[in-house]
User: What shape does this take?
Amino acid sequence: MTDIYLHNTLSGQKERFIPMDPDHVRVYVCGPTVYSYVHIGNGRPAVVFDTLTRLLRSAYPRVTYVSNITDIDDKINAAAAEGGESIKDLAARYTEAYLQDIQTLGVIPADVIPLATHHIQEIVSMINELIDAEFAYVSAGHVLFHVPADPEYGSLSKRSLEDMVDGARVEVADYKKDPKDFVLWKPSSPEQPGWDSPWGRGRPGWHIECSAMVKKHLGETIDIHGGGADLTFPHHENEAAQSRCANASKDYVRYWLHNGMLTLGSEKMSKSVGNVMTIRSLSQKHSGETLRYALLSGQYRSSLAWSEDLLVQAKSSLDSLYQSLRGKDHQETSSAYANLALGAYPQSVVTALKDDLNTPRALAAMHELGAALRRAEDEEARNQARSALLAGGWLLGLLGQSPDEHFTAGDAQDSLDAQQIEALIEARRQARADGDYAGADRIRDDLAEAGIELEDSRDGTRWRRR
RNA sequence: GGCUGGGUGGCAGAGUGGUGAUGCAGCGGACUGCAACUCCGUUAACGCCGGUUCGAUUCCGACCCCAGCCUCCA
Assistant: This one.
């Protein structure tokens, strides 16, 4: 028995994770709507659930991880109209960009990355089932889910139907039987994207795509469903209602997991507020690994204050791990430790992750492993400690570069290439040998000016870019 | 207003009924020609007020403050 504990939004508590089928764990995570470049807040669930998947894969023989992309949405339509681009092209372009961006963050692609527009048939048939079972009705070209028909509605987001009426910001439309009813299908005008359906040409509402794609790719009941905390209501509440009512199975999702929001300033990072930082722009200045470290530096359910200082600290912390690994003839990366059994990973890191994915504690464990490596007395102890650190790095999706790559990899903007640097180091060595310390220091200062720091040791001088 | 979650050292961020993580930064020392790297040591915290307790940052209650959701949102 693997004792992984996860906080389940449904119960509001940490629960022991017991998969429905221990031979096959099923995970679904909500991806973004692709109408522009995604921001780092969108990267958080990608990184968090990637880390969870790494843990699950080492604990269970088979894990199917599905993460969708919403490529049909009115915001996409609007963005396309504004840019004079076809909706299809725009969505395809930003889908591709999103996949690149999360790869930058060290995310292993999900097993299945379904697109809403590829599942119209499944969506239509699920809506039909809901109509047949009288949970949904047709009205003025729309199909609506009738919220009061589902006695369990509100169980996920913990709100009563009365609360929602009080909130009173639900869209009231005269074609709705109840103000809380939400759209499963809506009519499209000729210039809007649409598909033929029993209710005329139209397009799906937001929530139904996930219900349909989960069912198609994972089945009627799944183990884990993840996503941002801001999706709990209404998206996941509605999705759960649809699936519960359309499927024969009573259980839709056994464990609902929600990651907290990133904040920028004192406010949630959000496109509608306008305070976003795209992964694309951040990765101009910071490595994807630094961004990932920063994302993992907070426990996933807490909100995390994004700032330049956070990134500076993440970079320094990451450098310290890589510094531990540095050494001649040691260019192994964490990928050498991919997909091992759980017992093969350092237990301090595993224990932290098994406790509701406590990544800050896991990182603390990594630093302890790093310190142990730096202090190791002999070659055997060093090799053992190095392996432990790299293995832990795999679980967290870190240390995927060799130490030398990490410290010396440059780009076209750098004023000096490795060859020039090595030549200057040799000149400095000569100067020091000649007792010309002023000359030697001048070279070191010049290099520092160019962003190159030297580290002397008995084995010679090595260098790193700042 | 309702429903969640939270307030820990300069910063980030774990955790615990009594020995007070971890990282970044700081300080002292070792190493070094001097530095950097590294090592050793070290400063410093638990929103506020009550209660329970031999003892609370950790449990209970009130209060203050913050964030999220209640509309599109990761």
